[in-house]
């Protein structure tokens, strides 16, 4: 899939809007209001989002309720990011929904592979963790700090490492 001119334009506009948001001094309610305009969807008042935050398209982010997004989080959302309720995302975590094809000719042509990420209720993404495209993190699951998650995480599992592997269940 290649980005349309409209998608590219929206990404550029959202980059500017996020830069402005990140350089402002706003209350939690004002942050939610500004980010709601960027993602074109209301953000529930129970959610807390700490700045700076980095997004590309923005319109493919879907928050639940009582979600907490800490400082420096990156949401590459072209493929869709779906938050359950009470999701915790620690500082500097990265959630990616875009990949490039392995075939060099297709990659050179600018095609992208988009795969949604689902963060189920009450999961916790640790500091500096990376969630790769297409992953579902299960209900009550924990992703340890610095982990790189390339496969689905079962409900109630704790994963750690590069690549992330189940180390126990809670």
UniProtKB/TrEMBL annotation:
Q: Does the keyword Zinc apply?
A: no
Q: Which PROSITE patterns match?
A: HEXAPEP_TRANSFERASES
InterPro entries in the record: Hexapep, Hexapep_transf_CS, Hexapeptide_acetyltransf, Trimer_LpxA-like_sf
Keywords on record: Repeat, Transferase
Q: A GO molecular-function term, please?
A: O-acyltransferase activity
A Pfam family this protein belongs to?
Hexapep
Reading the lineage from the top rank, the first entry is: Bacteria
Q: Give the record's family classification.
A: Belongs to the transferase hexapeptide repeat family.
What protein does this entry describe? Answer: Putative galactoside O-acetyltransferase
Q: What organism is listed for this UniProt entry?
A: Limosilactobacillus gastricus DSM 16045
């Amino acid at each position: 899939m290649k980005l349309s001119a409209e998608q590219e334009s929206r990404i550029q506009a959202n980059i500017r809007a996020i830069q402005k948001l990140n350089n402002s001094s706003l209350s939690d309610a004002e942050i939610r209001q500004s980010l709601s305009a960027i993602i074109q969807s209301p953000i529930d008042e129970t959610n807390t989002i700490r700045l700076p935050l980095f997004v590309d398209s923005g319109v493919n982010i879907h928050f639940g309720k009582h979600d907490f997004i800490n400082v420096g989080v990156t949401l590459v959302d072209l493929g869709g990011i779906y938050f359950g309720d009470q999701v915790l995302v620690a500082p500097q975590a990265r959630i990616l929904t875009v990949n490039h094809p392995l075939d060099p000719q297709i990659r050179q042509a600018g095609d992208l592979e988009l795969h949604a990420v689902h963060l189920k209720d009450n999961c916790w993404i640790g500091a500096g963790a990376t969630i790769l495209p297409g992953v579902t993190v299960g209900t009550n699951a924990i992703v340890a700090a610095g982990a790189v998650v390339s496969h689905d995480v079962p409900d109630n599992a704790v994963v750690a490492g590069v690549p992330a592997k189940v180390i126990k269940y809670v």
